[in-house]
Amino acid sequence: MIGDGDRARGHERQSDPWIVTAAIVLTVLGLLNLVSIGLTSYAIRHAVVAAIGIVLMFAVSRMRVGNLRRFGWATLVVSVVMLVAVSFVGVAVKGAQRWLDFGVFTVQPSEVAKLGLVLVLASILAGGYTFGRLVATVSITGVVVALVALQPDLSSAVMLAAAAVLMLILARVPLLPLLPLFALGIAALPFAGLFLRPYQLERIQEFTSNHADTSGSGWASLQADIAVGSGGLWGLARDPMYGLRAEFLPESQHDLAFASVVYGWGLFAGLAVVAASLVITWRAALAARRARTKEGALVAAGIGGMFGIHAALSVAASLSLLPQHGMPIPLFSYGGTVALVGFVSIGLVLAVRRDGVARPLWAESSKRRRVPRGLTAGSLAVTAALVVMSVSAWHLQTDRGPELRALSDAQMTRCIRLPAERGQILDRNGVPLATNVAEYTISVVTGMFPENDAGSRAELANLLGVSPDALEKTLGERDEGEMQGVVGRVPPEQARQIIDANIPGVLVVPSGKRHYPYGATLASVLGYVGVADEQDMERWPQLALGSRVGRAGLEMQYDALLRGTDGKQCIYVDPAGNPLGPGERVDPVPGHDLRLHLDIGLQNLATDALAQAVRSSGGDLGAAVVMDARTGAVMALASVPGYDNNVYGPPVDAAALAAQTEGPGPGRMVNNAYQTAAPPGSTFKIVVGSANAEDQVLDPEQVIETGASYTYGGHTFANWKPLGPNNLMQAIQWSDNVYFYKLAELLGPDRIATAADQLGVGRRSGIDLPGEAEGFLGTPKSVADTGGTWYPGSTLLMGIGQGAVTATPLQVARWTSGIATGAVVTPQLAAAYGTGEGAPIPTGEPQRLPFADKLDPVRAGMRASAAAGTGAQLATLPVPAGAKTGTAEDPSAPGNGLDAWFTAVAPFDSPEVVVTAMVRGGGSGSDASGPVVKALLERYLAGRPAPAPAPTPAPAPEPGR
To answer: What region does 946 belong to: left with phi over 0, alpha with psi -120 to 50, or beta?
Structure first.
């Protein structure tokens, strides 16, 4: 009974359900892959071939092991004959002639040759090692490899050579005689390039290069990474767009079938392929151990080794661990010859196993000599390699999965930008200062607009107001491959009609052209809009190519608010870029409106008054600032000469731009109020007086002799006219140079610079505009650092705002209000954004001066100047004012080289507004700039809310109540 049980168990083990199941699993997974990528006809052919292969597998499994030799030689001879025939009548693909076409089917002889070579070498080497058998092995292998290499089919040639090496190792051929062969093979590697086609060389170069061209030879590797990385655990085959995604993966049915099945059915499907391949490898190794003859053992081991090597190399290529080599996974990858040879090979393994299990009494006596060398080690090596590669695939998904999924989405779409409507810029009262031209661009999308439909063409032509022939001509003028073509520009009413018509593939977008109603009056404040350049793309990486952004002024400063968010109309495309149909649409989000503190009435008045002052005084440029002394809100920022920002479009009117930027005279493109620094002259005297308030070196009440000049260090420094003895208040009132020469001498440059720095001299004010000038505040150290010399008289000149001091009109306005209020403000133009009242943009918190409580003598001087001094023209204002005038020597000024300054604050007892004006080359500050400041103060004060009436006192109670 025991013997019967043993025989029963032996009978059950003659077949191997594990290896058969693994073969069927690979076939089914291959069919699943073909169906999911849309190759249904290929799947049907593969299924038919698999069915034939399964029949052949079971037929061959009944073969007697004694017939292996004849079967092997027959297979090899037939394959060699076909290889020779391929050279004459073979089918060529990519320059390689590898297939024989028999009409109904094609055959790849090199795949047949792999099996034939394994069988023949097994029969030769089974008799043990002799030099003759080694020579025969090398000779037969050399002939077959040479025929395959001449096709050229490098990957198959390498596999044939590898099969020979594998068989020599398995057959226990001594390693010493193999060393010369290995050395010869290594030496021949450089000559392998002679047999490579250009595309094969590109693959190798791409793999070894760190800078692979993903649009060229690196395309397949990139697509394989995308497929494996974005497939996830369960794949994307259920995604409605998977068929299109799969089109981007080349050779998805053959070379990169592993990447394709992971793409469609997830990492678990890929692991099933790996597991099935390993089952075949290990079960073949087990069959080799149970083989009755050495020849049978070598056949089973060789077939298992070839299966494992094929699987490892193919998976490695799908993971970009090896260059693309065209190596399929038998039974899984599409290919009739590969599938049939694979099933026949498994049938041979089953035959060897059956023979070993069914006929144990006829086994050879020496089991050690039967078991191929390195059988277990080789199987473990293949297993380790496939396990490591499986882990690598998992890491690719976890590390780069989202990135690669995004690439998968991006490569199958082309998106047309739908520009957002840019927000308006409004003054404090809601008056539009920057608007969008009421014009819309009409374009048609290639592949979406029914160009061949006469009705659609006629309808669109009618809406555009053109003839159908004219529209057809416009459509025909598009460049090849262009995704959209502009067919017209229309006003808003017409654009609305086209939108309502809902014609497929017709886009209506704003033209993006900007309109500035006040032109040169505000150009240097508002700036302009243009097409984004490289610097803009670096500043805002999310910008799309062709986006329009603010290029100067407030348009640039608040571009992120004004620009809005562009939308997009995406179109699905095939790998060649041909449009297939509409994809995702995202509507644009309009930009926010920007409301300013600026008052266009004040701005217009300031510009006109400045222009008149420049013309009448012989100056060349001017600037004026009107600012809230309490908050820094800028109500006017005028500059002359100006430029018309409407010429920037976009598109730019090149001729008009050249006309206003070329020629003599000062630059028109800057705003002189905050971008032009000049000597501030006597307006700086109130800063020097403030320095004395902080570090009192001279009693403000002390009256000192002044006169017409002051001699110091052998040099005479003049007064603007002879003046009598003055204290600080009087010296400010009459702008006494000699008083401030002496005060500066007593203070020294460092004390003056410390107070000046706290008042914002020599540094940007922080106004919300780009490109602000810093001005300059020199000290002996800073001048020396720039290679200059601080002379003894430099301190005296500093005392009257000359020499090492320059400032912008905005900086002068800032220190004027700072001295008047005791706190320095940050100028700001923007008040709010959004519709209606909008969301406020708060101004900066005023910075209180450390010496604010000590400034009364300086303020008294400013008040006296406006009441009955150099700024006395302000005495007629309805409220008290404080002022300081300045006439500064400026080498860059035209005419007599004198800049005219005037700065004032009102009402002086409770400062609300500061107004500063400068005319370069204008001469006397009171004469040229004074009228500008007075006109602006009058305009401001006239528009102020009337003060609330005093409350009426309550009636006295009656006696007795």
So the answer is: beta
